[in-house]
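Submission sheet (multi-component)
Chains listed below:
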Amino acid sequence: MKYCFILLITLSSSSLLAQNFTISGSVKDSTNGEDLYGASVRVKELTNVGAITNAYGFYSLTLEKGLYTLVYGSSGFDQKEVKIELDKDMSIDLELNVPSEIQELGDVIVKAEKGNNNITSAEMNVTKLTPKDIETIPVLFGEKDIMKTLQLTPGVKGAGEGNAGFFVRGGGADQNLILLDEAPVYNASHLLGFFSVFNSDAIKDVALYKSGIPAEYGGRASSVMDVKMRDGNKKQFEASGGIGLISSRLTVEGPIVKDKGSFIISGRRSYVDIFLKLSKDEQIQNTSLFFYDLNMKANYKLGEKDRIFLSGYFGRDNFGFGDDFGFNWGNATGTLRWNHIINQKLFSNTSLVYSNFDYAFNIGAEGEDDSFGVQSSIQDWNVKQDFTYYANQNNTLKFGLNGIHHTFKPGALTGGNESFNELVLDSRYAIEMGAYIQNTHKVGNRLNLMYGLRYSGFNLIGDGNRYDFAENGTATTTEFDKWETIKYHNGLEPRLSASYLLTEKNSIKMSYNRNFQYLHQVSNSTSSSPTDIWVPSSNNVNPQIADQIAAGYYHNLKDNMYALSGEIYYKFLQNQIDYKNGANSFLNDEVEGEFVYGKGRAYGLEIQLRKTKGRFTGWISYTLSRSLRTFDQIDGGKEFSARQDRIHDIAVVAMFKINKSLAASATWIYYTGDAVTFPSGGYSVNNTFIPLYTERNGYRMPDYHRLDLGLTWYHKEKKRFESNMNFSVYNAYGRENAFSITFEPEDPDAPNGPQKAVQTTLFKLIPAITWNFNIK
Amino acid sequence: MKNILYILIAVATFSSCQKDIDLDLNSANPSIVIEANYAAEDSTVSVRITKTVNYFGSEAVPTVDNATVTITDQNGVSQSVPFSSNGDYTLTNYAPQLNTIYSLKVVIGGVSYSASSKMASPVIMDTIAYDWFEGGFGFDEGFVMVINFLDPADTVNFYAARFTVNGTEFNRLDEGFTQDDALTDGNYQSRPLFGGPQVDSLDVVGLELLSIDQAIYNYLNEAASIVGGSTSAAPGNPTSNWDNDALGYFSAYSSSRQEVTLP
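Outcome: structure written.
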């Protein structure tokens, strides 16, 4: 209530001004007509007056009558100016060009552009990347991967090799909300984590919020990764693609009706299994292993005020072992959106979103007596209504609501033979809802505020069972009818961030946010597996709650050529979940009885120095952080390190344009080894030597470090055809980083004799080559 | 499941490699380990009491020879389990009462440890059979023993199976088999025992089907999952039914046995 009151006062006070007119429109990329999100439109004559485009490139600015110069720009584009005479409400679409220095790699002129959005915007700790930013960064097998590149920024830590999961500021891998055109992606990895599901060719940009998360987002405790698909070229047909060592991709895009609508279709398939045929081992020869994915999007302008978007993603991984074993999993998402400009100040978007993740495995050849299969899925239907209201030059309001219907199918065992009974675990249903209001508020020339409130609720509904567990673990079951409430959880999530401009060159920012998370993914394995299940909140499982406060100092040097930032944060996590020792999570209706509950905290310092202009660009980041957990049932309630408690984390990213046709890059990362549980003794039972564990995560894996190198060779540009060749080397100095450390007897024939530790390394020096092309 | 995922990772990465490393592990304070069985079929209570050692190192497991061991039936009648040799305590000719709870108490230097276990009814093995397996799934070509029995309907049963080959007993934790009847209640079971000890032509193979209680079933599974390393992110000690932080277990079980000579 208090928030609404403040909002009311600020809005009414400024709307008393007379003779105001509104200028609105969109900001686009001049080459292909793509909407630019987060572009700034400022007024040169006035300090701290401007607007930022919303997710659809729309801006609106209300000013007093007069003559103005609009200065507009976006990261990765040349800044432009336009003079206007404002004496009536007007609509202007603005277009931005990619900088000439990217087009001609030769002479580099450092432009005296302002480029200090990082200092002036109220949004804190948002990391934005476009596929262009990462084009030359070296990656494993030469597969451009925006998710892997995000892990090189401070506060974001990859879950390790063989794992596409990531940790943000000490939170768990399930605490990141990953959205693809508003649809949640439940499993963002291919090939068990070696690649992410995001095909860079189809992606416009990615924004990652680490703190001060805007109120429009909800549902996860630690971060939001908002991935937006490209709309497709509105001006001309275009085909682009790449042929790589283990996968190839092709994208086709173009106008449906010129400047009215466009489409894009982008596909990718890997062919690792072709190499497996070369193996001498018959078992490996018979193994199939591949993934494919398809991104599709179309948009059409129905009139001056209406536009619709339809986007979809479909991806699948397949793994087979002759006829004996098959395993496949994948995501499917679909988003239908309708943009409507109600008036020059009020923008509306309505979305219908579908998301599905499922996996299945089957054992034995189909149709045979003893074959059986296991299936599991999670499915969402989501309805969203969002408004952006450009109240006046100092206030931009966002408000909206949404409702999600979740269907969880935790598992089913089908087929089977005489000795197996078919088993279908009960489906679970839930309605998750959210309503929010948020204001971006400029106070005077120096202070920018963003404050908002989100209400979220989660209703676990029938038909289904409620399980009440007695002390000894036995469950009492109560049945519920369809749509009947089994358990309702809800909460208020205040969000606040503020930035204060000290000078044009430096600013300080602060933020606080509270996030509720109602779905939980519990994993007891070190590598992410598609079979890690999602569990809804219930009478036994309470929602996870995260509170985070953060503060930062930002300083631009040498005419915004360098950006230096330092941020500190403290995060408190409630209702964290872990498995009991020896928990039975497989095909268990009463899996909630296998959990233990605790709390956590994380804190840290992140420092980054970026060079944003010139032939040489890149950054150095350093993070000092801790992530700790406390569970009554683990180590007698003693605080222990979370697995991702990496104390020191350094990333160096360097990109250098050698000349018109060559660009080189290098990345180096270093981090403290993950916390891990090793034995501190051993004993003998049943004539078997067993490890004795005394402390959860009391040991450390060896420190991790790696250098990757890349070289991109741009072929001479022809009128309609461009191409480049990308060479990369992953782990260039062949560091043997530990993927796992396991224990085994020194002599396999004397299992109770002396033991030894064995380290497995996955990748030592992997070269790759990829050829990319573009036809217009 | 986890093994299959590991195969996948291994297949996916041609460059993976392994090497032995030096690792500095802590030395935990020695704790008491009690491995206790009451086998109905033999009317024998056998208890072995030892202590923990350092993980790396070749020291012999120290035995505890000065303990007082007593078993108590559910009517409260106690009997001493006498010391035999080298940490072993044995009581023979102790007649079992099926479907009752037995308690075992061990006192070492004034510290007392106790555990109890329910003696289940035996499930009678029908026959044991064998098959010739062509190899696959990481198992070599060879004989596979098959255990046949009818799971009693409408009761919850927990099983373990154990091999004897030419008189040598295989009772290591990672050589045993366990099964519950959650998916198979009341069905006739014909279960191949993959991954058992290697058996060859003319071997005399004995199989024992044990009816155990749930705590022991869990213990055996948890223990087997950590023997020789674990893929779990948070491996823990198996849940013991002993109190006072003693390691090990006490199992009262019934069983049935069969023998076959391979062709």
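Remark: Chain B is about 10% helix and 45% strand.
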